[in-house]
Amino acid sequence: MALGLWLALGGSSAIGADDGSDVVLPDGARLREIDFQRHVMPLITRFGCNAANCHGSFQGRGGFRLSLFGHGGAKDLQALRERVDLDSPEDSLLLIKPSLREKHGGGQRFKIDSWSYQVLLAWIREGTPASRKSNGGALQAIVVTPGTLSFEKPEANATLVVEARFQDAPSETVTALSRFESQNSAIADVTADGHVNALRPGATHIVVTYAGGVATVPVTIPYLTDPATADGTTTTSPTVEDPSRGFIDAVIESQLKRLNLPSAAAADDTQFLRRATLDTLGRPPTAEEIRQFLSDCDPKKRAEAIDRLLADPQHASLWATRLCDLTGCRLETMEGPEERKPLRARMWHEWFRRRLKDGMPFDEIVRGVISGTSRDGTSAEEYLDREAALIRAAKAGNAGEYWRRHSLDLFYRRASVDGVYPREDLAERSAAAFLGIRIQCARCHIHPHDRWTQGDYAGFVNIFADVTFGSSTELNQAVFARLAEQRRQRAEGQSITPLPRIQEVYDDPQLGRRLLDPESGVIARPRPLGGPELDSSADTRTALADWLTSAENRQFARNWVNRIWAHYFGRGLVEPVDGFSASNPPSHPDLVGRLATEFVRSRFDMRHIERLILTSEVYQRSSMPVTALHDGDRYYASAPVRPLMAETLVQSLDQILKSSATWTPDVPAGGTLFDVAANRPSDARLAYLFELFGRGDRESVCDCDRTTQPSLRQTLHLMSDAVWIEQIQKSRLIDELLAETDDKRAVQNVVLQALSRFPSPDEEELFLGHLNGADDRRTGWIDIVWALVNSQEFRTNH
């Protein structure tokens, strides 16, 4: 109280303005006034006191709770004030615990004689004021110098300087109050004071945060010498300025030159055709397709092959499956009855497949998902007839013509949990799928790696507030009228078809459940992430679709070109693919921007982007490493070796073994495993194989259920599973090999079918020797086929 009276009577609040008692920061800067927002909370954040594993956790720690990473404003100020002693500042818990004058579960954060201790002590001595009126307003940006780090060799180092720029106030050096983190500490690490140490060749980023501002600094450390290629020679990369090269090759080559990495030679025709066919159709090329491609002397044959593959209906099926993954086509959340859920999944898949097959612009496809309603502008009576016909077709095992509907109302036809419609899940899934942003963290606290607050989360969820699934008043009236008519017809002795139970997806503001903005305590205005407020008097989902697919909204385009890139290279330019955030920059920012521009310019033509990628030198490079290093493919110097998708691996096995398995009833007539629409196939063995090889269950709202990570369990299954072994023993392939009188020709044929190439002389000698030494030729061929399908070369795309 005495201190408060002294200040009220005009006591100076400056720290040692005239006596030299300013707090001196490690970089030499002097703090004359301590500001809560600019200095205290950034310092608390730097030491990790408000991290999720400390006082920033949801329940706090030791009775002391702060907002995660210090965005709680007045709540954090109050929490800190409860840990200080104004009469004896040096005895404040805020000082004695982190300095270990008293036992502290978080260990020592600073020493008594440190500058950070002095910052907090000065603030307490001042009476723990809130931010000063003269602080100049909100943080505009942080600028890091140098903006890029290009080291000449490992063991070099540099120091970063961080400058904060405020609204209506001078800039301030805040290096000591910033937090530094390396995206890859094996390549370059960074100290708490911003000293960057180059450790080994490669490229990464240093992420710098201060008071909610984020900046990233690219770091490049070149390989010291021109690495030798696999055959002992060296390669010279083409010049980036070559006008005949596409922008993909130019951007990738630019980084390779900075890294002093040569690029691999072009893949040969068999390697190219196998890779492209696996990626676009989800199966390897047949022996006949390979022979025909090899015999073609047209220099444009690769481009023509790419066009054929992209136009193949199987390509549309593959992407329809991926869109079912992203939009959550999951039996467990669908409306009943149980026996019709697989048919609804097939309708979902077919809705996507038809549009992809016909080349519909991707923005139109997404618009049909986001703004989906059941009636599609028809009257309740018309919808009643159409839906009744669809349900009757489903009862007969027919998916009908659902795909003709303008919108995918199945995206919203989800079973509620405890009577609460899952609007939060729908919003989170939409953000991840179509913006590449994970916002689920913001349900409970500010996003730990991005700028999204709980208010941002509430505003985005409230876009979906009015959507519901059930029976609207208009639909109920139409049903009652139809039932009355049927009773009349029945009374007249007419034969009638019973009316099934019919529901719809519709907007009803009366049933909406809106979230509050935790800061203001009022209902959050509907607003997309990074977008403007939407007119809540109209259908906000339609407004969201307008904003989302606008040519000006580059995040939509950036997200989808990144997903396309990830499909063809095994990882995104932003990774994870739905992890776009200020603290997770793209590995090649210029390339993401150029691809997004092309996507918009082509009117969101997916095949245009795919064609740019597939025809690039980068995609068509050999997977043979050009160096003794193991991470050259990380920078696209060579093609990455990737495990096959679950569907692709099983189809590849079926194809080489010439299996008669049709996987009915999961695969429709004439379809492939990429036409299996449900997340859980009805065939128990197929369901097990999908689970084993990482297809995923589509439960998570982020894109993290499907995985292609290899495992020992997968290897053991392929090597020892009794069903696979029996299929090899009884396969038509074995009969064909036995029927071939020329064993050398037979060896060439089986290797071509399994690995999409001809055997090397050593392999040919090995296989022929095994045949000659086998007890009988059937056993010998079974052993060879078993060895081929269990090889790493068969199980990967390379």
How many H/I helices?
A: 29
Taking pLDDT < 50 over at least 5 consecutive residues as the criterion, the unreliable ranges are 1-20, 227-241
Mean pLDDT: 89
User: How would you describe the shape?
Assistant: globular
- Main β-sheet, spatial strand arrangement: 4-12-11-8
Overall radius of gyration:
32 Å
Termini separation: 73 Å
Helices and strands: which structural class?
alpha+beta
Assembly status: single chain
Q: How would you sum up the major sheet?
A: 4 strands, mixed
* Helical amount: 40-55%
Number of strands: 16
Strand content: 5-15%
Main attributes of the structure:
16 strands; 29 helices; alpha+beta; disordered N terminus; 3-stranded antiparallel β-sheet; single chain; 798 residues
Explain what the structure shows.
The protein has 798 residues and is α+β, with helices and mostly antiparallel strands. It contains 29 helices and 16 strands. Strands 4-12-11-8 form a 4-stranded mixed beta sheet. Strands 3-6-7 form a 3-stranded antiparallel beta sheet, with no helix packed on it. A 3-stranded antiparallel beta sheet has the order 5-10-9, with no helix packed on it. Helix 9 runs antiparallel to helix 20 (606-614), helix 10 packs across helix 11 and helix 25 (732-739) packs across helix 28 (777-789). The radius of gyration is 32 Å and the shape is globular. The termini are far apart.
Task: Write a compact overview of the structure shown.
With about 800 residues, the protein is an alpha+beta fold. The protein is built from 29 helices and 16 strands.
